[in-house]
Design goal:
- The protein has 32 helices and 17 strands.
- The protein is α/β, with parallel strands linked by helices.
- The strands form four sheets. A seven-stranded parallel beta sheet has the order 3-4-2-5-6-1-7, sandwiched between helices.
- Helix 5 links the parallel strand 3 and strand 4.
- Helix 13 runs antiparallel to helix 14, helix 21 crosses helix 25 and helix 27 crosses helix 29.
- The longest helix has 21 residues.
């Protein structure tokens, strides 16, 4: 009914040609005044389901949102698109609230975001102004149900708030993770009137799911991150202690890392989150306190350092990855002692026994996921009630060859024998001491050097034995008790293995090295995006998401018309940022002698045409000016080129054997610091080196040192 109008709004404001699955139908339902319930996976575009109707409907759309940070991000994004939006929550003073309510009465906004806490006060303020409220959107609607994974008592006030508004507005409930039980609960508790149901499935095809059992977690993390220094990621932990230990480890190893848990002050949490969102930090180590409000679109990986309390929480948290639709990874590291941690949280909670019973069952499902040999995606989707799910997705660790199996039957039998002969009275370290033939005091004092298994595995590396034992625990061959000093016990599986009734295999993880590719233009576009975000005090992804920069890098638009056809570029963003990005792309095309297909090039005989110059002549011109005594900035201004391009010209000339004194570009007394940074992080990429140095040392100085010392 409203298809042409809504598609026009979609293109004009958001830069997309077509709606994703379920969006158009949901929007049409809402505009026609029908209560609606939409279940869409994270990143599928739930927010557009109420943002587009807000632009069509007469009046102000209210959005109930659970987290303050999420409100601010969405409001920043909408305002950057030219859509009037604001929020009212506990971070505002009384005067600020009154000012925003006055602006609301003057129709300054189309969307107003509200926290579920304090809705009574908001209702009181709204009674004194004459406004029309055609739509209320309840985001993260699963929070209203105590059977959901993130129950918020304040959400029980939402229906009372809605009932006070006359005439009653249309109500939209939306969520990414809700089982059938939770969905029915939401419909009842929000009193949705015969809602239209829109279920687009829970699948996130761009996410690669992986489970690794029994790994040395710190070693795994360091190996995994070694190829991802420039990527954005979240590592979820179960406890504050884990968060702080991992934070310290990664900072010590040169990673730009933040930390987030409930024990930190509100100011520190806010500072950490903003640094992550604004890309001053690449990594965030966090407990589940860092949850639903993370709207950052270009998180490339989420690692769970230990299992969360249930599969809904896991899928919600893992879903922070790849919100922009780009390939991303979700890694779960499992160890048996993680189960004890989650059981402790359940046992010490104030919940009633029925809820505790369900939480134990939910934890069991999470453990089953960690052990399953079936497709991980299939396991998740069937849990949420999807039917006819394929047996293989070819995009998880169960369906690919990323995990090899190694036969360790002999080694395992030696370990089992040692645990048995030691009377199942000792922990991991002492069992390894016995097997290695250690002379430490405990071994000798307890007479363990007299056991037949003493020194049985002295030729094996201690780290290998530790990892094997952890994997045997993870796979149920050994049991680690839950007391303060855990002991190793045999299980029915290990006793069977000792009698040679089955072979034992462990998983060997293969972490693939990232493929080197030329992403020079993408990085230049990212740098420009970052500078714009700093100027406007908005997160970089609000300027343009990564997928827009990637499309710009591959399609190389040279005119405003071409730029406007790129996904994610709407009218407002084209007007705001188009010239700066176009100029950068044109300069890159010119300097690298890039010729697009003949049809495209010949159609651009306009004032914006890019003339492809002789590359040799271009960088020789810069060299001549350098020899005349001009500095790099003066050369850039004279030639109307960027300083980055001039730097490249001079370096090209040096590599061709021309007379370039590299010391001209290395600040006094800085060479030693640069060499120290290179020795620490390597010379493969410049950004990690730059991050180790003071801000006044630029990329040109780093390049000069690398070339001078022949480290390239």
């Amino acid at each position: 009914m409203y298809k042409n109008e809504t598609l026009n709004l979609l293109k004009t404001y958001f830069g997309y040609e077509n709606f994703k699955k379920g969006q158009g139908e949901t929007i049409d339902s809402i505009i026609n005044g029908k209560d609606s319930f939409v279940v869409m996976p994270t990143g599928a575009g739930k927010s557009l389901c109420y943002q587009i109707p807000a632009l069509v409907l007469d009046g102000i759309t209210l959005v109930i949102s659970p987290l303050i940070s999420l409100m601010k991000d969405q409001v920043d994004g909408l305002n950057s698109l030219g859509i009037g939006a604001t929020y009212i929550n506990s971070t505002l003073s009384k005067a600020q609230v009154e000012e925003r309510v006055l602006d609301i009465s003057k129709d300054k906004y189309k969307l107003v975001y509200l926290a579920p806490e304090g809705l009574d006060n908001i209702n009181y303020l709204f009674r004194n102004i004459d406004i029309k409220i055609p739509l209320i959107a309840v985001d993260e609607a699963h929070c209203v149900s105590k059977w959901g994974h993130d129950f918020r008592p304040s959400y029980r006030n939402v229906n009372s708030f809605i009932s006070t508004i006359n005439p009653r507005p249309t109500v939209l409930a939306c969520t990414a993770t809700a089982t059938d039980v939770v969905q029915k609960d939401v419909i009842s508790l929000l009193d949705l009137h015969d809602p239209n149901m829109f279920f687009t499935g829970f699948d996130r095809p761009n996410l690669n799911f992986k489970v690794f059992r029994g790994e040395n977690k710190e070693t795994f993390i360091l190996n995994y991150l070694s190829n991802k220094r420039d990527e954005s990621g979240i590592i979820y932990t179960s406890t504050r202690k884990e968060t702080e230990q991992l934070y310290n480890l990664l900072n010590k190893n040169g990673y730009k890392t933040g930390m987030y848990h409930a024990g930190l002050s509100e100011n520190i949490r806010k500072e950490m989150q903003e640094s992550f969102m604004y890309e001053n930090l690449n990594l965030m180590i966090a407990t589940n306190a860092f949850g639903m409000g993370i709207d950052k679109s270009n998180v490339r990986f989420v690692i769970h350092y230990s299992i969360p309390k249930n599969l809904e929480a896991y899928y919600q948290e893992a879903g922070r990855a790849g919100r922009d639709g780009e390939p991303s990874e979700c890694v779960l590291l499992f160890n048996n002692k993680d189960i004890q941690t989650q059981k402790y949280f359940i046992d010490t909670s104030p919940m009633d026994e029925d809820k505790k019973f369900q939480d134990y069952n939910n934890l069991r499902t999470m453990v089953d996921y960690s052990y399953t040999q079936k497709c991980l995606r299939q396991f998740i989707l069937e849990y949420f009630g999807e039917k006819d799910v394929p047996d293989s997705c070819n995009n998880c660790s169960s369906c690919t060859n990323e995990i090899e199996l190694k036969d360790i039957t002999t080694e395992a039998q030696m370990i089992f024998s040692c645990v048995y002969r030691a009377g199942e009275r000792y922990g991991v370290n002492l069992i390894i001491d016995i097997l290695k033939g250690s002379q430490n005091q405990k071994v000798l004092r307890f007479g363990l050097d007299k056991l037949s298994t003493y020194g049985l595995m002295k030729k094996y590396d201690r780290k290998f034995l530790d990892e094997v034992i952890n994997k045997l625990i993870a796979d149920g061959y050994l049991l680690m008790t839950s007391e303060q000093y855990p002991l190793l016990k045999l299980t029915a599986k290990s006793k069977l293995a000792l009698k040679n009734k089955e072979n034992i295999f462990i998983q060997i993880v293969k972490l693939e090295k990232s493929v080197e590719k030329d992403d020079t233009l993408f990085e230049l576009l990212r740098t420009l995006r970052k500078s714009i975000s700093v100027e406007l005090s908005i997160p970089p992804y609000v300027v343009f998401p990564d997928f827009t920069l990637k499309e710009l890098s591959s399609k190389l638009p040279l005119t405003e018309a071409e730029f406007g056809e790129i996904k994610g570029v709407g009218k407002t963003k084209l007007e705001k940022y188009g010239d700066r990005f176009l100029n950068l792309i044109k300069e890159y095309v010119e300097e690298n002698q890039i010729v697009r297909d003949n049809t495209t090039v010949s159609s651009q005989i306009t004032s914006n045409t890019v003339i492809i110059k002789d590359k040799a002549k271009s960088h020789h011109e810069s060299y001549n000016l350098y020899k005349e005594g001009l500095n790099l900035n003066d050369i850039a201004a004279t030639r109307n080129l960027s300083s980055v391009t001039i730097q490249k010209h001079i370096m090209d000339c040096f590599l061709e054997g021309m007379d370039v004194d590299l010391d001209d570009f290395i600040p006094k007394d800085s060479e030693g610091y640069i060499l120290e940074a290179i020795n620490k992080v390597g010379a493969e990429k410049l950004k990690p080196i730059k991050d180790e140095l003071s801000p006044d040392i630029d990329y040109m100085a780093i390049k000069a040192v690398i070339l001078k010392h022949k480290m390239a």
